[in-house]
């Protein structure tokens, strides 16, 4: 199929995205809004490997040249970029019953905002760099690899402590499912590819929270928009089980490299 060359919808939300953790946070919310309120959206897949996000028509909407972006055709073609801003925008305008968000003047709103900021400024960038140095560059750099994988571990330790005695990140009591959880899930669903092999044992509260979210049908649909990532935990595990393209040997090599990098720089897990 040819790559998008401009907007195609005339009404509703138009989502411009790709199969990445940052993209999934928005597609999950849009699937939840469609299920709860019947709010439709139009999808265009922006293939970041082909640099479609750098085309002038796209950067007119998103000056940063990244995904995701939404355009709200029901509000004069208003464009929003950056995942945290999109989640807040959609909740503010299209979640009137606060099924997935909190009233703006509530402390719960502030708590959700803080954890979304934590993801946006911490977990996402650190895990993204961990993936980059662990898997996507030809020149292996031990210091950078153990630094970013270690910081990713530290951050999941912070999240695990937050989820002790809680079902969700924000909200009263044991918490309530919200955009704060959605903002984190895409990253938390690809931890195996990030070098966190013993995730369930190391972060049991995050594991239980992740399983709770993945049981939601709208979440599963959102994680398939526009397609499932080969680096999602389930997909990655299947590649290993099938030994697709020598996946097992490659995984052992990655694991050994990470172990050696941690030993070389005397890495010791600690959180916070």
From TrEMBL:
InterPro entries the UniProt entry points to: Glutathione-S-Trfase_C-like, Glutathione-S-Trfase_C_sf, Glutathione_S-Trfase, Glutathione_S-Trfase_N, GST_C, Thioredoxin-like_sf
Pfam family of the protein (one): GST_C
Domain spans labelled GST C-terminal: 105-231
Domain (GST N-terminal): residue spans on this chain: 14-98
Highest taxon above the source species: Eukaryota
Annotated family: Belongs to the GST superfamily.
Name of the molecule in the record: Glutathione s-transferase
């Amino acid at each position: 199929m040819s790559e998008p060359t401009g907007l195609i919808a005339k009404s509703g939300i138009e989502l411009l995205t790709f199969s990445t953790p940052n993209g999934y946070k928005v597609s999950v919310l849009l699937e939840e809004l469609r299920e709860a309120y019947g709010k439709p959206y139009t999808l265009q897949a922006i293939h970041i490997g082909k640099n479609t996000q750098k085309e002038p028509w796209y950067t007119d909407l998103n000056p940063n040249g990244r995904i995701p972006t939404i355009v709200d055709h029901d509000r004069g073609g208003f464009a929003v970029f950056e995942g945290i801003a999109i989640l807040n925008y959609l909740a503010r305008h299209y979640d009137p019953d606060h099924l997935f968000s909190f009233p703006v003047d509530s402390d719960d709103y502030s708590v959700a905002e803080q954890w979304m900021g934590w993801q946006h400024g911490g977990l996402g960038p650190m895990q993204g760099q961990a993936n980059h140095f662990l898997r996507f560059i030809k020149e292996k750099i031990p210091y950078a690899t153990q630094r970013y994988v270690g910081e990713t571990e530290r951050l999941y330790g912070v999240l695990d402590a937050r989820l002790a005695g809680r079902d969700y990140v924000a909200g009263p009591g044991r918490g309530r499912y919200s955009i704060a959880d959605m903002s984190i899930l895409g990253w938390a669903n690809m931890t195996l590819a990030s070098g966190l092999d013993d995730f369930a044992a190391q972060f049991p509260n995050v594991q239980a929270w992740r399983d709770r979210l993945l049981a939601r049908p709208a979440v599963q649909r959102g994680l398939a928009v526009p397609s499932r990532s080969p680096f999602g935990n389930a997909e990655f595990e299947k590649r290993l089980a099938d030994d697709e393209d020598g996946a097992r040997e490659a995984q052992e090599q990655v694991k050994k490299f990470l172990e050696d990098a941690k030993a070389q720089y005397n890495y010791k897990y600690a959180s916070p």
